Each structure stands twice: as C-alpha cells, then as structure tokens.
Amino acid sequence: MVAPYLEFDDAYFSAPDRRMRPLDGVELAVAPGELLWVTPPDAASRLPLADAACGVLACRAGAVRIAGEPWGEIHPNRAAFRRSRIGRVYHHGGWISNLNVRENILLARRHHGDDSENALAEEAESWARRFLLDAVPRSRPAETPGDALRAAEWVRAMLCRPRLLLLENPLVRAAGDAVAAFGAAIAEQRRRKCAVLWISLVAPPESAGRVDRKAIVRGRRAALEEPAS
Amino acid sequence: MPPIRTSTISRRTTAGVVRAAATASSLLAMLGRSGRRRAAAAVDAAALLGAVVYAAALPSTWRRTTRDVLARQLLFTSVDGASTAARIGAAVGVLMIVQAALWLDAFGADPEMVAPLFLRLSVRELGPLLASLIVIGRSGAAISAELATMKVNEELEVLESQGIDVMTYLVAPRVIGVIISVFSLALLVVCSMLAGGYLVGALVRAIRTSADQFLADLLRQADFVDLLFFLSKTIVVGLFVGTICCTAGLRVRRAATDIPRVAARSGVQALSGVFIVSAALSLIIYGRVLIFQVL
Known about the structure:
The complex is a heterodimer of chains A (229) and B (295). By secondary structure, chain A is an alpha/beta fold. Chain A is 31% helix and 24% strand. Chain A has helices at residues 49-54, 76-84, 101-112, 117-130, 146-159, 176-191, and strands spanning 6-13, 23-30, 35-39, 61-66, 69-70, 86-89, 164-168, 195-199, 213-218, 221-225. In chain A, the strands form two sheets. Chain A has a six-stranded mixed sheet. A four-stranded antiparallel sheet of chain A has the order 2-1-4-5, with no helix packed on it. By secondary structure, chain B is an all-alpha fold. Chain B has helices spanning 6-57, 64-79, 82-107, 114-152, 155-161, 166-203, 211-221, 224-250, 258-286; strands spanning 288-289, 292-293. In chain B, a hairpin with a 2-residue loop joins strand 1 (288-289) and strand 2 (292-293). In chain B, helix 3 (82-107) crosses helix 6 (166-203). Chain B is flat. The interface between A and B is medium-sized, with 26 and 20 residues.
C-alpha cells in the first residue's frame, strides 16, 4: 500500500470567517497518483480542506500531513518548498490584483526557482495552448474574460510541476471544449505521481482518469463513499 | 402647587450622580480602549520593523521576484517623485534665501553667513523633512491601501499557499524602497534648494559671491557630523515611514470599507513618526532640542 501524500487525520476545522464551513473529524487521504473527489453540500460552500492541505489553515484538533509530516511541525523554509509544488485552482479565483495574469502565473516558479525567463515563458505558453488559449493573457485579472481566466488558473496550477493538485470548482466558467484538455493534463500529472484533491459538485472529466475515492460533506462531516465506478 | 417632597429631590440627585458616574466610567473605558489600541499598533509596528531589518539582511530574501517589487517601488516613489522634489526644493530654497536676506539685513550681519546657514538648514532639517513628506504624500497612503486591499481580498493567503512569504515579498522591498527614496529625494531637495536659493539670492543681491565661490563656501562648511546626521535621518525616518504604512495596511479588518480609513490614518501616523524621530535624532546627534542645548 502506497503511503498517502496528503492525509487528514481526525482533523477538526473551525471556520475562520462566515464564508467557510467548519468540519469535524475529517479522515481522508490521497496517495501519489490518486484522485479524491470531495463534494461540498452546495455550490456556494467553501470547505477548509484546500487551505488546510496547503498548511495555511491550522486544524484545532487532529493533524494534516503532507508527505507524512504534519504541517505544524515543518520548518518554514521546507514548508515554503512543499507549497511551491502544490498546484491549486482556488475557490475564489486567487489572483494578485496588482499583477497581470501572466505575472501571476509565473510568480511562484520565478520566486522559488532559477529557470530562465524565456524557458518559463515558453512553458507557460505551451500550457496555455493546450488549454485552447491563444496566449497567456497579459491583462489584469479583473479585465480578463471569465473563460480565459479559468484556463489561466489551470496553467498556473500545472506550471509548478505539482506533487499535489488542489482543485476547487475548477470547471466553473470554463470553456466547454477545454475541459477535456484539462482532464488530460490531470491524468498526465497523475502518471507522474501527483496526488489530486477535486472539490466540486461537478464530477471530474473522464479524461482525468478514474476517481479513486469519493467523499460527501454533509453538515460538519465528510463521509467517504465507495469508489465511483 | 403641591410642595416637592424631599424624597423626590433625593431620588433625582441620586439618579444624576449615577448618570455622571456612568459617563465618567464610559470615558475612562474609551480612553483605556484607545490607549490599548495604540499600544497594540505600536507593538505591531516595532515587531514588523525588527522583522524587516532581519529579512533585508538575508541574501535569500532578494530573489528576482522581490527585486521586481523593489524596482517598482523605487520607480513609483523615487523616480516619479523626482520632479515634485525638485520643484518643492527650489521653491523652499527661494523662501529661505529671501528670509535670510531680510534678517541678515535687519541685524546687519555678514552676508557670508548665508552659505553656512543655508547648508545647515537644508542638510540637517529641511531636506530630509521635505523628502519624507513627499514620500508620505505620494506613497505612504498608497502602500497602506494596497496591502489592506490585498488582505481584504485574501491575496496574502494566496501568496502563502504558493510558498511566498509576505514579509520577504511584500513588506521588506517596500520598506527598503521607501528608505532609498527618502534618501535620494532628500539629496535632490537639498541640491534644488541650494541651486534655487543661490539663483534668487544672486538676483536680489543677498548673495554677492560667484557660483563657484558659493559652492566652495558650502563645501568648506560641510562637516562629517552633518553628513552623518543627514544619512542617519533619511535612513531612520524612511524605515519608520515604510514600517508604519505597511503595519497600518496589514492591520486592517476584513472589510473593504476600512481601506480608505486605514490609508488616511497611516499618512497621519507616518507624519507624526517623522517629526518624533527627527526630534529624537537631533537630540542624540546634536544634543539640542530646537535652540536649547540639552546634552
């Protein structure tokens, strides 16, 4: 049995504000190459799982482990490195408003690595073309059309060469014909042993591969179901 | 009319006393809350200042993304503010030379006192002070508003979730940028004050030496203590201005309506900080407060 890359071990989460739903006794795990699908109670609900998986939201009891280490016990420099390999599509967009979309996409790789600017730009453009964008947008996020911005979020998530993908409602406002490409990109990352946490009422596209486990959030509990066929 | 009973008077007096006590208690509580709030803000600012100094000293802080932020801050504050600094410096230089001419004539003093007086006033006090005011006006409120907006929109959490430390990426380059800007704009203000003052002074015959001689007089009067004071004042004041503005922005509560209030308040707080720090540095380096020898 492969050790999980991300593990929620009887974790209890308070809601830091009224926009987030508290959860009790979360027992979930996702191993490298696996896809765990978590369905929230409704489309507007924001779960603490993605923030906790990044280590930016602490649990009030229990533990959240990444590669076997509890987030609270990881040295800040190692924690920053771990986070640099987490690709994320945010529930609320997650754009830095005083940077344009291209700068947002390249920010993490430029910050953590020493790849040349040209190489990074070419890699970003390659991902953008895969998701049916003409080019990586250079406009501000507030000025970018919704479907292009959604595809740009996918580019940002994939560009960090993720060990873990955290995808919150990743298909909202997405262009229909790009969804299959996004699924194929997820499958490709899974073959590279990337763990995937999919948080949405909408199922992952078939091109993303088999859903290994599914959990449903009801009230303050996340209950694991039988694997979807 | 029936007489007012003694018991009624007593009840009214007692009620009045209770109300007065309640008002006094509320005022004290308000003062206490205000004091605690200010103390908490001061503690936060001191902590941020220490963290910035520590982060800025680490080579690992200055990655290319952080250097980009520093470059943007310098462009916005220093480069874009240069013309304002030159204009204000020249105008103040003219004001100073006119006043110097009036007072030297009134007291029958030697016109050769103009150069040293001019230099000392501009280098010791007016140059750093005007540069600080320009930086606060141009950038202080903008920095606070920007950081406050980022906090309200949860952009700080986005940076953290990407493994990007807020202190090293957002705060340290802004504070360092403000320090460099205060220093460079203060230099510009001093130069434009001296140039503007000399031109007008020569026109009104308050200065009767050639430009070369005036410059030579200035250089002869400049001493190491003045330069030390100028350098320390611009750096320390810049550090406080940057720290105060960043702290104010990061302490915003998560409501968009707080942002303009935070921005306005940070400007006033930074202004107070500038004068307090300037007075303290004058006391330490020259042993004087205003014209009074203290140390």
